[in-house]
Amino acid sequence: MAEKKLTFEQSMARLEEIVSLLERGEAPLEDALALFEEGTGLMKKCSAMLDKAEQKVLKLTAAPDGTPEASALDGEG
């Protein structure tokens, strides 16, 4: 897949596609390794995107003294 800026959702969809292809076990070894490498990169990218989103949520819900302030995500409590 060409290197381009993918959204989290696009990256996850491609990762699911790669897993499906690898699970079938029909790809030649060289192709399977390339898919595995691409999947590993996508997994790292998705993990980093989730970490960044978590940090943003924590920042948005921080108490005045900077400590995380627990609050319900759905607006309750």
UniProtKB/TrEMBL annotation:
One of its GO terms (cellular component) is cytosol. Heterooligomer composed of large and small subunits. Belongs to the XseB family. GO terms for molecular function: exodeoxyribonuclease VII activity. Its EC number is 3.1.11.6. Gene3D superfamilies: Exonuclease VII, small subunit. It comes from the Bacteria. Pfam families: Exonuc_VII_S. It catalyses: Exonucleolytic cleavage in either 5'- to 3'- or 3'- to 5'-direction to yield nucleoside 5'-phosphates. InterPro entries: Exonuc_VII_S, Exonuc_VII_ssu_sf. It is found in: Cytoplasm. One of its GO terms (biological process) is DNA catabolic process. It is an enzyme of class 3 (hydrolase). Keywords: Cytoplasm, Exonuclease, Hydrolase, Nuclease. The keyword Cell inner membrane does not apply. This is Exodeoxyribonuclease 7 small subunit. Bidirectionally degrades single-stranded DNA into large acid-insoluble oligonucleotides, which are then degraded further into small acid-soluble oligonucleotides.
